[in-house]
């Protein structure tokens, strides 16, 4: 007896943490102040087969204390765009255009020195697979202390003390002993905690978490998300959370940016995007989330495969996989790339789709079939 | 750790024993005529004399008995010869009695061993240094001119036959232009400086020649580790690119390289036969070569057994070194 409106209620972001305005600020940057502004970002990789257009005109900004979830399939450009924020692309192999203003500093085209000083101190990144992201031959405590020493002129023992402190902070029991161990002596969840400790050791203003829970057990996933939430409240940093898991989004994100084939297709607050998605691709993502409670409803994955970034489809990149193309007259989906524009009067909510009445289609055709299938696998 | 070493040592002993069995089988069960070789080609060598020699060396006994005597010699030593002629005592580990030199084989081989060991250790030190230096350099400047030059040279050099390259090196650098002191061997205990200068040229040439294959290996290994997630993590910490390269990427790339070097040491020990011949260094390789020419079987067998022993020890050291580099390898 689940109805569409119940579905929407369950998709509200969890209001567990204190609200943004109440979060503790920090010196220099207050909660709500802009930390990151990405303008018209493009990332291209010239290859022998042609130009791979990984990110194509991406715009977003982020305030201190906020969490932005970037959602999309593999190859949608979510990781590539975030690596660009960290300056991690090899400039000999990648062409980066547009602008990334991080804490008032332009990152695109910045010197190696500038980028080096920014890394870990202003923005830090946590990677998907904690198994392979820590150096297997080096002690965990040393690896964290090294990041601290890169930005603070302190002795090794002071850095190590800080390292142990951070391990304690992320909930690793017996941190002094653990600091002397190697990554293979840690469990998967512990390793990801250590990665978070490494990410936060320099108290960065921005934390980019690239699918931080994908490689972990479901029970551990929830712990890691809670930890990230708690630490954000404590440190007041901004978080970019890269994920393909909408359950995770519902739990922690303030804002959602849905990416497809290197472009933003939908962007708004988590509440709006999850409760009233307006892009057929977002509908597809919602329909493909599994649920324990769902009775008899089958998963409906987005049909087809993501397009080749070497050769994007004409018009709307999503049109070959879209079930609603016929609703747009004149074959515009094939001919014309839709703009990322606000529907009706809402100004901070944007969608890239030609459909005239996406809200009605979602309400009448998509929502009823979701049938509570938004899979709260983290609870 | 101690248990591990003891267990590996026990294993090494059995490997060496297997080497002895194989060596004995190859050299002493074959159609060889050691008594004839001992007797010489002169007119003094009558069939009667050959028979006497056979008896005195115990060669008239069944092969199995001979083998037991051989093993006995290795373990506790033995006396060679019978009451008819002078009895020679061969102390353990006895690897037989040289027909030609009339001395215990063990003494002859061990006398030459430091020579070959000096050669191999120096050569390996040179090629490991060069391989790491140029391999890392090429990987760091991948695709650039310096990388192309390094890769090009490392592909061209091994195409030259080793003995021709070695002869040319000897001729040009040690004889015609005499930039490098002419190769010779002086015991390190006698004069460390003479030891060093005498072998320097050989080390440099051999090391440089051997390094070419390893340069490409280190380069590929470094390029591979640079793509690893943990190197990306290191880079995202804000440490210098140099530190990323040496403290993180190289640290990981070096582990498989150590294994490769361990395997190669056996190969280099064997290959030293050419080097010793060309540079006229009186090592084990030359001893084996000379013994081949004179048919002095026990000496050849002795060289094989001693080489096998030291290869086994070398492998043990490499395995332990690997445990130091990679903490995931548990030595137990």
Instruction: Provide the spatial order of strands within the biggest beta sheet of chain A.
Output: 6-7-8-3-9-10-11
Query: Count of DSSP helices of chain A?
Result: 14
Total strands of chain B: 2
Mean pLDDT, all residues of chain B: 85
Biggest interface reads: A-B, 31 and 23 residues
Structural class label of chain A: alpha/beta
Question: Shape of chain B, please?
Answer: globular
* Oligomer class: heterodimer
Share of helical residues of chain A = 25-40%
Order of helices and strands of chain B: HHHHEEHHHHHHHH
Distance between the termini of chain B: 6 Å
Largest sheet of chain A: 7 strands, mixed
Total strand segments of chain A: 11
Helix content of chain B: over 70%
The portion of residues forming beta strands of chain B comes to under 5%
Poorly predicted sequence stretches spanning 5 or more consecutive residues of chain A: 1-28, 373-379
Radius of gyration of chain B: 24 Å
- Count of helices of chain B? 12
The biggest sheet of chain B, with number of strands, parallel, antiparallel or mixed sense and barrel status, is:
2 strands, antiparallel
Unreliable parts of chain B:
none
Query: What is the residue-averaged pLDDT of chain A?
Result: 84
Topology:
The complex is a heterodimer of chains A (379) and B (332).
Chain A: H1 4-10, E1 34-47, E2 50-63, E3 67-71, H2 78-85, E4 95-102, E5 105-106, H3 112-118, E6 123-126, H4 130-133, H5 140-149, H6 156-169, H7 175-179, H8 188-200, E7 206-210, H9 218-235, E8 238-243, H10 246-252, E9 255-260, E10 263-269, H11 270-275, H12 280-287, H13 332-335, E11 350-351, H14 358-370
Parallel strand pairs in A: 3-8, 3-9, 6-7, 7-8
Antiparallel strand pairs in A: 1-2, 1-4, 4-5, 9-10, 10-11
Chain B: H1 2-28, H2 34-39, H3 47-56, H4 63-76, E1 77-80, E2 88-91, H5 105-140, H6 145-156, H7 162-176, H8 192-226, H9 229-235, H10 241-279, H11 284-294, H12 297-325
Antiparallel strand pairs in B: 1-2
Helix pairs in contact in B: 1-12, 5-6, 5-8, 5-10, 5-12, 6-8, 7-8, 7-10, 8-10, 9-10, 10-11, 10-12, 11-12
